[in-house]
Amino acid sequence: MPDDALIHDRDAGIDRLLQIMRRLRDPESGCPWDIEQDFATIAPYTIEEAYEVADAIERGAWGELEGELGDLLLQTVYHTQMGEEAGRFSFQSVVQAISDKLVARHPHVFGDETREKSADQQTRDWEKIKAAERAGKAQKGTLDGVAIGLPALLRALKLQKRAARVGFDWPDASHVLDKITEEAQELAEACDHLGPDEIEEEFGDLLFVMANLGRHLGVDPEAALRRANAKFVRRFEGIEARLAEMGKRPEDSDLAEMDALWEAVKAAERSKAASSED
């Protein structure tokens, strides 16, 4: 099929999208902005699009999810086009690699292993397979392969899980709580006596241990913080709504008034929750 016909064929599926990207990156006839991009400049957009997918799911915005998934797919197509131009890989080789990985990691589905396993056993088997894959990539260290570009809390969690597999872990959450007390005291001392670099370091240590506590409690730190963010937004919007009823905006108020309204919003939420349980 000629290039133009493929580009305008709405039923051509992934082939159409791949051809569109080839045209956008064409040095002679493509888009100047697209031609100038490289892996490093596109990477931030890839991360952003992944978060927008997660945001649509979090909000239950199913009408938006289709478009957000398309935006995320475009990022894969963009990277693979640049990989093909550099002779490193292609869209087809990427598809082949992930397909091979899924088949290899699910011998209980695609091989001759039994499916009669607990979720815990399947998780242990999965980790054994991944460890063998890392060994094949000459990743010798326990922490090798934990991506540096992950969100910091997520990377902390993955680093801690890796270390725990080889026995470097507190036996239970009570020990982590003790460590949090210790790190909080060190942060307080840094605030009183040390400079910005030391304060940042101690603050990071405290966050790292908080992530570890989440792991011991079975709480995803990223999910917990997203939930806290959503609660803060909801309650602050409640403050703004109550101020608007008084003909005021937050900048026309003061901390004491807004704090009182915050408590009123909290109380209203708890009353509503209690009524829904009755």
TrEMBL record:
<dbReference type="GO" id="GO:0006950">
    <property type="term" value="P:response to stress"/>
</dbReference>
<keyword id="KW-0378">Hydrolase</keyword>
<comment type="similarity">
    <text>Belongs to the nucleoside triphosphate pyrophosphohydrolase family.</text>
</comment>
<protein>
    <recommendedName>
        <fullName>Nucleoside triphosphate pyrophosphohydrolase</fullName>
        <ecNumber>3.6.1.8</ecNumber>
    </recommendedName>
</protein>
<feature type="domain" description="NTP pyrophosphohydrolase MazG-like">
    <location>
        <begin position="37"/>
        <end position="110"/>
    </location>
</feature>
<dbReference type="GO" id="GO:0047693">
    <property type="term" value="F:ATP diphosphatase activity"/>
</dbReference>
<dbReference type="GO" id="GO:0046052">
    <property type="term" value="P:UTP catabolic process"/>
</dbReference>
<dbReference type="InterPro" id="IPR048011">
    <property type="entry name" value="NTP-PPase_MazG-like_C"/>
</dbReference>
<dbReference type="GO" id="GO:0006203">
    <property type="term" value="P:dGTP catabolic process"/>
</dbReference>
<dbReference type="InterPro" id="IPR011551">
    <property type="entry name" value="NTP_PyrPHydrolase_MazG"/>
</dbReference>
<dbReference type="GO" id="GO:0046047">
    <property type="term" value="P:TTP catabolic process"/>
</dbReference>
<dbReference type="GO" id="GO:0046061">
    <property type="term" value="P:dATP catabolic process"/>
</dbReference>
<feature type="domain" description="NTP pyrophosphohydrolase MazG-like">
    <location>
        <begin position="176"/>
        <end position="235"/>
    </location>
</feature>
<dbReference type="GO" id="GO:0046076">
    <property type="term" value="P:dTTP catabolic process"/>
</dbReference>
<dbReference type="InterPro" id="IPR048015">
    <property type="entry name" value="NTP-PPase_MazG-like_N"/>
</dbReference>
<dbReference type="GO" id="GO:0046081">
    <property type="term" value="P:dUTP catabolic process"/>
</dbReference>
<dbReference type="InterPro" id="IPR004518">
    <property type="entry name" value="MazG-like_dom"/>
</dbReference>
<dbReference type="Pfam" id="PF03819">
    <property type="entry name" value="MazG"/>
</dbReference>
